[in-house]
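Appendix B. One record, verbatim.
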Amino acid sequence: MIRATDDVEKVRMFIGQGLIMALQAVVLLVGTLIILFATNPKLTLVALPVLPLALLMFMVFGAVSQPLFTQLQIRLSALNTILQEYLAGIRVIKAFGREKYKQTRFDQAVESHLEQNLRISSIFSFIFPLISLIGNVGQVAVLYAASDQILGKTLTLGEWQQFSLYLVYVFFPLGQLGFIISLMSQAAASATRIFEILDAKNDVEDKPDAVALTEVQGHVAFSNVSFRYFKSGEYVLKDVSFKAQPGQTIALLGGDR
């Protein structure tokens, strides 16, 4: 049920929101870089190295977080299974006085899910301040280079103000990319779980050289057939013989004696 609801919803959110935000971020970033190069190429080259470094950090974060999101969904599925089973069998649980034991198992599942959420949150709390630090370092480098140009009379305060306003739109998409990478990691983990079901093969399959069965007429004959449920159990049917004619229905009822 979690794969059919929560996992599908995470994939939908990435397709419906993440991809659009990614397109907006790329268009904004490319357009701003073009304007910055046209305004002051030297200052733009100073700010440019920050972008691949930030993208590298996001890629590392995505690679690390995807298995964690997969484990989070697995634990959520386990919690949902326990809740569903306990609610469906609540009368049986009460009849056997198993409330405390079931409560303990439910609490353990909740704690396990919470621990995984906290583990992911700890990574978020590390990666986003680090990206922000990289962006601030880039702004400091640009400010230092701009001060040299201002002191050298090659850059006016008005031109610097114009450039700095455009520079904001370089670092703004980086914040969007952080949210997009998070959505993408969750969607990738959920998509893997969904396709495990969609790509599952049937346990019973025809052989590659199997002949297609066309419409047949005839009867089925059982001759001295024996059957038991387990190898160590007694036979339910032993040495049974009968014939089923076309259109005929045969039922075996009653005890084994």
